[in-house]
Amino acid sequence: MARVKVAVNGYGTIGKRVADAIKLQPDMELVGVAKTSPNYEAFTAVKKGYKLYVPKENAAKFEKAGIQVSGYIEDMINEADIIVDTTPNGIGASYKPLYQKFGKKAIFQGGEKADVAEVSFSALCNYNEAINKNYIRVVSCNTTGILRTLCTINSKVSKIEKVRVTVVRRASDPKEVKKGPINSIVPDPASVPSHHAKDVLTVMKGIDIISMAVVAPTTLMHMHLMNITMKEPVRREDVINALKDTERIVLINSSRTGIGSTAEIIEVSRDIGRYRNDIPEVVVFEDSVYSHNNELFLMYGVHQESIVVPENIDAIRAAMNLADKNESIKITNDTLGLMKGYLI
After folding, report:
1. Is 228 known as a binding-site position?
2. Structural domain spans, the chain
3. Which pathway does the UniProt entry assign to this protein (predicted)?
4. Residue 151 assigned ligand-binding role
5. What is the DSSP secondary-structure string of 103-116?
């Protein structure tokens, strides 16, 4: 069976991870990746053997830098069956007319407005809604973390009545040197709700959710503090068992392992040999899971650089109708080495 030809427009934090993931899929072929500036990521893409495509007006800059290109972005789009757009926030929408011109399907990221696509996507929650769609938006890293958690609890434990969540956002990714804060915690924004609740509603329509967010001076992971009111009383043991039994969610027991921070989670990822130290799973602190009648509390970490990568792979399969939900998630999990149960 012929493999689907996938192009990645944008080769930054998310794009390079999606490109690597595509190369591991038995039903996909990576056409190439696109960059607009000849920085170190362009050099590494070529060194890894990826075909590099650039804007026609910037080709001379790449030539001057000694970077071999395989053609222009339009050439890449023309050759592909579907494009994963991982360009910076707001840029993806400007490329949509080009994708439409060539009659190509596209996957967008959570930094785009929801109306850029026909459906906002989280694989565990609404895979079937995205089947055969032309334009799909994978929700943001924080929203992905919230949705994986809520959809698991809503389907495996008890129906949810309302959700209140506080998002402690990392200030920047590790590679970024021009962002902060360095010595402050900043409301993001001070008004309530933050955009995360609105984003959740694009997938779990009608749920009662309010979110608040702050930015903290760290680069490693986000942290979420969640309070869920259930429609009926729940037991802590049932919640933990549901989380343990769900793909793309892992637990850590701080009392047993001594892991009590995002820094130690990343260190474990290094120690177990995860590529780039990535943790695409939601990382739940088991010790934080607490139930009181019909209220549930928990805390979990979200690795902003990698959590949406498996979602992009599943979104490709949904758009091209390559597999049903369970089959796609299994293939993605197996090829990317995703876990469930305990991290260690």
Report:
1. no
2. 4-139+308-336, 142-307
3. Carbohydrate degradation; glycolysis; pyruvate from D-glyceraldehyde 3-phosphate: step 1/5
4. no
5. T-EEEE-TTS-GGG
Per-residue pLDDT reduced to its tens digit, 255-295: 999 999 999 999 999 999 999 999 999 999 999 999 999 99
Q: Is 224 annotated as a binding residue?
A: no
Q: What is the pLDDT of residues 287-309, one digit of tens each?
A: 999 999 999 999 999 999 999 99
171 annotated to bind ligand: no
Give domain 4-139+308-336's CATH architecture: 3-Layer(aba) Sandwich (3.40)
Query: Active site residue: 138, 141, 240, 249, which one?
Result: 141
CA quadruple 315, 300, 86, 63: dihedral sign:
negative
What is the C-alpha end-to-end distance of the chain, expressed in Å? 38
The pLDDT confidence band at residue 178, using thresholds 50, 70 and 90, is confident
Cβ atoms 27, 321 nearer than 8 A: no
Question: What are the b/e assignments for 19-44, b being 16+ CB within 10 Å?
Answer: bbbbeebebbebbbbbbbebeebbee
All residues at 6 or more sequence positions from 193 whose CB lies less than 8 Å from its CB, including other chains: 209, 210, 211, 212
- Measured in whole angstroms, how far is the alpha carbon of residue 82 from the centre of its chain? 18
State the virtual CA torsion across 212, 112, 118, 129 in degrees, nearest 10. -50
Tell me if 141 is assigned to a ligand binding site. Answer: yes
> Does the pLDDT at position 39 exceed 90?
yes
Residue type, 256: R
For 215-245, letters b (16+ CB in 10 Å) and e give bbebbbbbbbebebebeeebeeeebbebbee
- Does 292 appear as a known binding residue? no
Side chain identity at 137, as an amino acid letter? Answer: R
Residue 331 pLDDT more than 70?
Answer: yes
Question: Which one, of 210, 211, 217, lies nearest residue 169 by Cα?
Answer: 217
In this prediction, residues 190-203 reach a mean pLDDT of 97
Question: Which residue, 87, 58, 91, is CA-closest to 72?
Answer: 58
- 141 tagged catalytic: yes
CATH level 2 (architecture), domain 142-307: 2-Layer Sandwich (3.30)
Cα Rg for the chain, rounded, in angstroms? 20
pLDDT at 83 over 70: yes
